[in-house]
Amino acid sequence: xxxxxxxxxxxxxxxxxxxxxxxxxDHEFDFEPGQHTQIHVRNDGEEVVxxxxxxxxxxxxxxxxxxxxYPDGTASTYMHERERGDEIEIEELDxxxxxxxxxxxxxxxxxxTGITPMMAMLKRYVEEGTGEAHxxxxxxxxxxxxxxxxxxxxxxxxxxxxxxxxxxxEDWDGLTGHVQEHLPDALETLDDTHFYVCGxxxxxxxxxxxxxxxxxxxxxxxxxxxxxxxxxEES
Length: 235
Ligand SMILES: Cc1cc2nc3c(=O)[nH]c(=O)nc-3n(C[C@H](O)[C@H](O)[C@H](O)COP(=O)(O)OP(=O)(O)OC[C@H]3O[C@@H](n4cnc5c(N)ncnc54)[C@H](O)[C@@H]3O)c2cc1C
Fold this sequence. Notes:
By secondary structure, this protein is of the alpha/beta class. Helix content is 20%, strand content 34%.
């Protein structure tokens, strides 16, 4: 079953990412932070369905999505052409990536729009978590850092939240290179930390390999890869 959602607001948050606030009147969304909806788009008479992850918490009639535009992308281009007041078809939320244990220390590791489930899980962790949260986010340069201000505010307002941005194509006074390279140094002890990983497949695979080399058991690593094709694991 789909819902008809109204686009209540749109904000350009980086050069290629827009944030959409969708409202379904007389409805309350019930989901686990980290899960995604499906947007239904009509394209040349065919229905195209694509998953997008809510960055907000459940319990309201709203969903906040951050969607990156791909020049040839069907659903992302459709969404970037929407205006306030437009209606779109969306599904209830679903998916495997969600906060497993709010009492464990956590590390959220993402690149690009892989940040969206991490934002929702961080918000839940800040409400319910009892340990330390390390938030690692990688982008090519400063202007593409999604939700930088929000994350800076989380860090400033919560002594157990530590945010680590890493830029791969710009020199600055912060971390540089691929974000996963900073995991071993930044975490004083990897014991008992839960790792949530989402982004380009190369990053997801490399992060899992790196964690495995550091002795982190697979059952403490939760991941999703969604850019390009399936994540192919090296045997
Ligand atoms: C569980 C899940 C959650 C997701 N959540 C989000 C989210 O919160 N925000 C978000 O922006 N996206 C998210 N995505 C990705 C999203 O579902 C679409 O894959 C993406 O928006 C592209 O869809 P499209 O219809 O615009 O492009 P398509 O019409 O499918 O593709 C057209 C062309 O665009 C290019 N292209 C499309 N997608 C990619 C890509 N991901 N990487 C590189 N090139 C690409 C390719 O050249 C492709 O041939 C999620 C994916 C999954 C699986």
